[in-house]
Amino acid sequence: LVKNDGYYGTDCESGVAFPLPPETMAGAVESVSDYSSCDYQDGDDCHLSVVLGNTLYESYQTGVDSSGLHSTCVIRWHLNVVYPSDGRGEGCTSTDAAGFPIGTMLFSPDDVFAATQVTNGDLGHALRFTMPNDRMRAASYVHPASHNGAPNSTNANAIPYGARLRLKMTFDGTKNVTNFTTNESARVILRTLQKYGMFLSDGGGIPLIADDGMFSTKSWDDLSVDSHALFGIALGDFDVMPLGTVIHYDNNDQNAECVRNHFGEDVIFSDGNNW
User: Fold this and answer.
1) 69's torsion region: left (phi>0), alpha (psi -120 to 50) or beta?
2) What is the pTM of this model?
3) Which long-range contacts (CB under 8 A, 24 or more apart) does 212-216 make?
4) Picking from 10-19, 85-94, 112-121, which range would have the lowest pLDDT averaged per residue?
5) How far, CA to CA in Å, does 90 sit from each of 209, 258, 272?
């Protein structure tokens, strides 16, 4: 049983029966190889995502002890129903600052390998990326995001949380998917970025986020994919998709509230965002 130890109020859920796979099967908190050694009490993210049936359970700042699972924020997402454009509700965060489900935008070595077995294969969904806070528009987000974190750029041209970027057909000078690399696994990622793009989901210094492959059959080493596999591609090689209405939301305002959409239980937006 989850104990929500955080400060998010109506954004998160409490009293949730969170399914916890045995560590010997396939269970670990982000950045560690088990459930207990992530330093969540000192502010590490310590994310945990678990799928059971049609439900995705996600936890932020997760710890497990003899009394159960402790979390700053736990979210449930249903994978077989479509969310409205404002997700879980205006002003509502999740385990991702933008209010997104993290697990649906991650990709593993097994996902990439499977796509290499198909001619011109791709991952079939948009990816997740982050930027430093000083590069993102302050107090703003666009749908399908429903929240922003701590961006602080006052540049009117800075992109807001929720922005969708798509890789141009020609990038890194005059290159394309074929002549940029001979690595078919890297080509899968490039084709995905060209077809589905990536959503600005949080503040951070690692642009593109993937599963580390801890519980995958294949590894990133097997695919010869590392942090340099896409080296040479810059932010200017992406087109910003139409933003729609920019929503003002000051995360530091004491009156800022999450206005939840209630469907009996939370559901996940799928069709409208190619997820």
Assistant:
1) beta
2) 0.90
3) 213/108, 213/109, 213/110, 214/28, 214/33, 215/26, 215/28, 216/108, 216/109, 216/110
4) 10-19
5) 25, 6, 17
State both tokens at 109. Answer: 């070595």
Please give the order of strands across the beta sheet that includes 136-141.
Answer: 159-161, 136-141, 247-248
Q: How far apart are the two ends of the chain, measured CA to CA in Å? A: 29
Q: How far is CA 213 from the centre of its chain?
A: 16
Residues contacting residue 25 through CB under 8 Å, at least 6 positions apart? none
| One-letter identity of residue 201 | S
What are the tens digits of pLDDT across the range 24-60?
A: 566 788 888 887 778 877 878 999 999 999 999 999 9
Q: Take residue 64 and report the two structure tokens written for it.
A: 């497990």
3-class secondary-structure state, position 24: helix
- The H-or-E segment that residue 73 falls in is strand 68-78
| Cβ–Cβ under 8 Å, residues 212 and 30 | no
pLDDT band per the 50, 70, 90 thresholds, residue 231: very high
* Cis amide prior to 144 (ω within 30 degrees): yes
Q: What is the pLDDT of residues 1-14, one digit of tens each?
A: 454 545 567 888 87
